[in-house]
Amino acid sequence: MFNLGPTAVAKAGGVSQPYVSRILSDADSFVGNQAFYRRLESRLGCLIESRTAQFFRVSPTPVRCIEGAAQEAASITENYADP
């Protein structure tokens, strides 16, 4: 879950680590209860903020590509401007 271990998720959701492990297990049909998911959702921002590693990797884009895209967008906008 977003590069978070079961212990961190359990702590944020107010449940035990085995409870989360069962939810994440493909071999177990247990899915948890609504209260757990509501609690986890309300604390998700803080939980993700406390991670020690980045989850999403975004490659840098060359400045020339961005400049070209901005110029193209500007020319499109100019073509549709009200006279």
Would you mind describing this structure in some detail?
With 83 residues, the chain is an all-alpha fold. It has one domain. 59% of the residues lie in helices and 0% in strands. It has four helices and no strands. It has helices spanning 6-13, 17-24, 34-49, 63-79. It is elongated. The relative contact order is 0.13. The mean pLDDT is 84.
How are the elements arranged and paired?
Blueprint: H1 6-13, H2 17-24, H3 34-49, H4 63-79
Compute the number of helices: 4
Helix content percent band: 55-70%
The string of secondary-structure elements, in order, is HHHH
Q: Using DSSP, what is the number of strands?
A: 0
**Secondary-structure class:** mainly alpha
Radius of gyration: 22 Å
Biggest β-sheet strands, sense, barrel: none
Strand content: under 5%
Q: Summarize model confidence as the mean pLDDT.
A: 84
Please state the overall shape, judged from the principal axes of the Cα atoms. elongated
**Weakly predicted, low-confidence segments:** none
Number of domains: 1
* End-to-end distance: 52 Å
